Amino acid sequence: MTAPVKNATYHNTKGDLFTSFNVEDFDVPHGRDEVWRFVPMRRLRGLHDGSFATAVTADIAVSVPDSATGVTVETVAKNDPRLGQAGAPVDRTSAQAWTSMSEATVVTFAKNSVVADAVNITVTGKGDDVTSFGAITVIVEEGAEALVNLHFVGSGTHSDNHEFIVGDNARLSVVVHEDWNDDAVHLGAERALLGRDATFRHAVAVFGGSLVRLVPQVKFAAPGGDAEMLGVYFADDGQFFEQRLLVDHAQPNCKSNVLYKGALQGDPSTERSEARTAWVGDVLIRANAQGTDTYEANRNLVLTEGARADAVPNLEIETGEIAGAGHAATVGRFDDEQLFYLLSRGINAEDARRLIVRGFFSEVINRIPGEATRELLEAKITEELDGTEL
């Protein structure tokens, strides 16, 4: 394993960034820093520089289906050795969450257990005048299969770390639903570590919150791993959403597929209409990762004036002995050919545009596990479109 270098100094690849669990090891970030250049720093409520409101313990509730066997839920101290297995934070805000939290939640799926129904983890904001910190670690032992829904609701300022440890021949599907009230701020760092022949399915849906920034990272610890990362997001006026991903192919013969789709709509009637999203997708293929097969794509629909989407896909390839690697990103308005086709079939322009938006998201939503979750996300998109002149 390549040793990390000191904070704020040159590094070989994006997979070799400086890491630490101690917030004091990081410099205070600024808006001119590369990894923060899209973020409105003034809206972080002090999570980046230590000026946040009083720290409190996060409100985390875990619901295990009655039919499930082999599932253990624990609240542990921050020095529990099971925490941090996927790696330490790579930035000051996630290190702040580790330093400031008083406890963490660990959910373990026993070896060879199969849990067909979802385990639901709900994080509820603590409201104004406080800042909540926490950590959630999901461990799927060898040969086990599990589905986890991670749901964020309520108001407040929250920062946390999520870890997913997927053992050899294990399978984990995770759905992260950012369903905050529109005044919430959430910074979340996510790290997944995949064992031999492990399968990891990760889906993110971001609809609520004033500012939501997620940093998912996947690293293959042994050959044969398979990772899929999906995302849907819909930003309204005054909202800022950022997804900043890293897939680290550190082992041979692993696969990854990344597909995120987003839509944005501002409110042209306001003086300073602004809906913003940023998506940065990094895929690193190390020198020893022969046989890698990877593709990443980000698609964005800008529905109104006063909306801006930034999309930055990146590939770092250190070996030519791969099965395939590619990336794509688009930011644009409606597909004119699709719109013309629907209009020619007698569908009015407003309904045609709504059908296009729903169809745009369906490619991702149809691949998210759980019928109830898919129906909920479809309903969220319908709710976003109601009252909007497209």
UniProtKB/TrEMBL annotation:
Residues 126-360 form the SUF system FeS cluster assembly SufBD core domain. SUPFAM superfamilies: Stabilizer of iron transporter SufD. It comes from the Bacteria. One of its GO terms (biological process) is iron-sulfur cluster assembly. Belongs to the iron-sulfur cluster assembly SufBD family. This is FeS cluster assembly protein SufD. The lineage of its organism: Bacteria, Bacillati, Actinomycetota, Actinomycetes, Mycobacteriales.
